[in-house]
Amino acid sequence: MSDLDVAVDNGVATITMNRPEARNALSEAMRSDLAEALHDVEQDAAVRCVVLTGAGEHFMAGGDVKNMAKGLEGKPPEQIKKEFLFRIHDLHPIMFAMRRMPKPVIASCRGAAAGAGVSMALACDLIIASEDAFFTLAYCRIGTSPDGSSSFHLPRAVGIKKALEIALLGDRFDAQTAKDIGMINFVVETGQLAAETEKLARRLADGPTHVYGNTKALFYRSLESEFESQLQAEAEYFADCASRTDFREGVNAFSEKRAPIFTGN
Length: 265
Prior knowledge:
The chain is of the alpha/beta class. The protein has 12 helices and 9 strands.
């Protein structure tokens, strides 16, 4: 059985981390397969929205700590450092792919999102969680600092003081708290997560996909851009959108007082 499942249905690609017996903890195979799957759906013009979720009762409980412990046995510090540098860098193509993806990426979370599970969810564009979901950055509890881009995304989502509280204390908090502090977008009834995720994904998949890609690029570059360069980018992206089919459909639908039918182009 694969550590990752990918299913595409009517414009929505659902990528499922599939190690339920280990709370979907990241394995080496999962890291590799996830990077490849994200590349594939990025290149697939039929895919207009991506959902990342976990099999079973949990989203993802971080790295495989048991295997980490085994990997430390009998090794000098220099060797451990070398191996973990490689291991952490191995995560980066996943984060780059989700940021670069010219279509919306949704994290759909139930149960535990811990350590790298929090990092993975934060790297998505939107996060929807069931009421029974819980979050903990947890790295400090195993004696290490965060990875997986959480040190970039979390302070920007919740502010530096709250981010440091979450990282330094390693406390567990529920989905409603995560929403209240601006870490996630939506909280839904536990039994409705799949249906509400499908509804959100369907709404995005039926939208102007190229516009969403440009909007993602604009908002993410704004985190590091100067004012003048951001305004220039806005002008260029708007003009690009205006030259496309969906803009013509959108303005015509507005004039005709009907709902637009976007093709994603």
